[in-house]
């Protein structure tokens, strides 16, 4: 028989996936015509587009029962992409600066290039090349706070699931090479979940 | 736990059944429901409560421009079991303008700016020593958000905010039984942050 802690973990995972699956497929499901969506996406691929992505992990993680610690949800809180066809310029920001010495300040700017492609009418993936500059750590789970600077390059892969023709949920992972308080070669795992819109 | 999941999924399915297209109403009253959700799920550890639990928006133009205000206040006095008297007085006010753009029939993109000011005063006393502090804060923010229409008159809102804040904090230690030995300190701080969406607002339109 499974231990109580395993059962709690399993129920939390079920709730987490239930939230995404139901929210994505039911709440946003208005135009569920796959052909129409495919046409829309083809149309986007041949036009300028811009998208804005919100890091919704802090809010979502608060809704998972029995959370034990504050959420560290990755370095980027707001991301913007502007492009033509499959190519896009992208900008990511995340900062929290406080002049009081009691609070750890951090801040990151990420500028780069994104190449995105369709896997299916609703699913897209993209690869990225970015330049990072900032300080105060990457705000990752189990990451020790550091007051050193961040500068480096990264390459990454991301996924976007279009729950509506203009609304998507996405996540991405990066391989970072540079300085993060010291020399660093590290994987930034997909700790953030983004809710994005095409505007 | 199973019943909670069942209830949650049922709730989400019910949203789609009652989905309506957007309409403009003159007044919108919003309540931050994150506290309730977080407490009911036992997630209070590390949770940052908002200073603005109530919002009110007034439609200014039919193109979707709103005047928005948000308030938060607290006045409390607690005499607890270890003979400590605690008094808290806090008030925050935010005011700004908001614009909206339709993304879908039920999802709107909103953006705008606010100015805000607040005051907070805390006093803790055990009859011999009194610790007193107050903080005055002022600032402004730019925000981007999403407004999701659950029903014609009910919506859910999230916002990402970039703010700057200047605060001045005064602290005093008062020795109630010995005159002339009080200690005081005055500190200022500057703060700027990009806050990802971490609060969910339930909005009623009328």
Question: How does this model look, in words?
Answer:
- The complex is a heterodimer of chains A (199) and B (206).
- Chain A has 199 residues and is α+β, with helices and mostly antiparallel strands.
- In chain A, 21% of the residues lie in helices and 47% in strands.
- The longest helix of chain A is centred in the N-terminal third of the chain and has 24 residues.
- The radius of gyration of chain A is 18 Å and the shape is globular.
- Chain A starts with a helix and ends with a strand.
- Chain B is 11% helix and 63% strand.
- The longest helix of chain B is centred in the N-terminal third of the chain and has 16 residues.
- At the A-B interface, helix 1, strand 1, helix 3, strand 3 and strand 9 of A face helix 1, helix 2, strand 6, strand 7 and strand 8 of B.
- Strand 3 of chain A pairs antiparallel with strand 8 of chain B.
Brief characterization of the structure:
Chain A has about 200 residues and is an alpha+beta fold. Helix content of chain A is about 20%, strand content about 45%.
Write the layout of secondary structure elements.
The complex is a heterodimer of chains A (199) and B (206).
Chain A: H1 4-27, H2 34-45, E1 48-55, H3 57-62, E2 78-84, E3 87-98, E4 106-118, E5 123-135, E6 149-164, E7 167-180, E8 183-188, E9 194-198
Antiparallel strand pairs in A: 1-2, 1-9, 2-3, 3-4, 4-5, 5-6, 6-7, 7-8, 7-9
Chain B: H1 2-17, E1 27-32, H2 34-40, E2 54-61, E3 65-79, E4 85-102, E5 107-125, E6 129-151, E7 154-175, E8 183-195, E9 201-205
Antiparallel strand pairs in B: 1-2, 1-9, 2-3, 3-4, 4-5, 5-6, 6-7, 7-8, 7-9
């Amino acid at each position: 028989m499974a231990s109580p802690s395993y059962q709690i973990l399993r129920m939390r995972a079920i709730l987490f996936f239930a939230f995404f699956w139901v929210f994505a497929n039911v709440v946003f499901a208005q135009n569920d015509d796959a052909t129409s969506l495919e046409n829309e996406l083809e149309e986007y691929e041949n036009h300028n587009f811009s998208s804005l992505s919100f890091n919704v992990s802090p809010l979502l993680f608060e809704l998972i029962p029995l959370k034990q610690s504050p959420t560290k949800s990755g370095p980027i809180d707001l991301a913007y992409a502007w492009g033509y066809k499959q190519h896009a310029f992208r900008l990511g920001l995340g900062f929290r600066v406080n002049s009081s010495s009691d609070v750890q300040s951090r801040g990151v700017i990420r500028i780069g290039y994104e190449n995105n492609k369709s896997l299916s009418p609703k699913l897209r993936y993209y690869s990225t090349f970015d330049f990072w500059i900032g300080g105060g750590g990457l705000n990752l789970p189990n990451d020790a706070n550091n007051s050193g600077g961040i500068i480096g390059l990264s390459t990454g892969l991301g996924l976007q699931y279009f729950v509506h023709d203009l609304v998507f949920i996405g996540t991405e992972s990066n391989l970072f090479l540079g300085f993060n308080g010291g020399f660093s070669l590290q994987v930034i795992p997909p700790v953030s979940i983004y809710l994005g819109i095409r505007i | 736990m199973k019943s909670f999941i069942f209830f949650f999924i049922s709730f989400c399915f019910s949203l789609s059944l009652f989905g309506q297209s957007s309409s403009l109403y003159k007044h919108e009253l919003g309540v931050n429901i994150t506290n309730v959700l977080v407490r009911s799920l036992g997630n209070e550890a590390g949770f940052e409560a908002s200073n603005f639990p109530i919002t009110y928006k007034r439609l200014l133009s039919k193109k979707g421009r709103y005047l928005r205000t948000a308030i938060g206040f607290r006045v409390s006095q607690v005499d607890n079991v270890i003979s400590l008297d605690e008094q808290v007085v806090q008030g925050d006010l935010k005011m700004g303008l908001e614009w909206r753009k339709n993304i879908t029939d039920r999802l709107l993109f909103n953006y705008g700016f606010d100015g805000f000011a607040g005051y907070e005063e805390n006093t803790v006393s055990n009859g011999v020593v009194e610790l007193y502090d107050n903080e005055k804060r002022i600032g402004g923010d730019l925000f981007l958000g999403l407004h999701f229409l659950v029903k014609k008159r009910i919506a859910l809102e999230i916002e990402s905010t970039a703010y700057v804040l200047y605060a001045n904090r005064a602290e005093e230690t008062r020795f109630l039984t010995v005159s002339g030995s009080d200690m005081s300190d005055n500190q200022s701080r500057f703060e700027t942050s990009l806050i990802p969406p971490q609060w969910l607002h339930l909005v009623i339109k009328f």
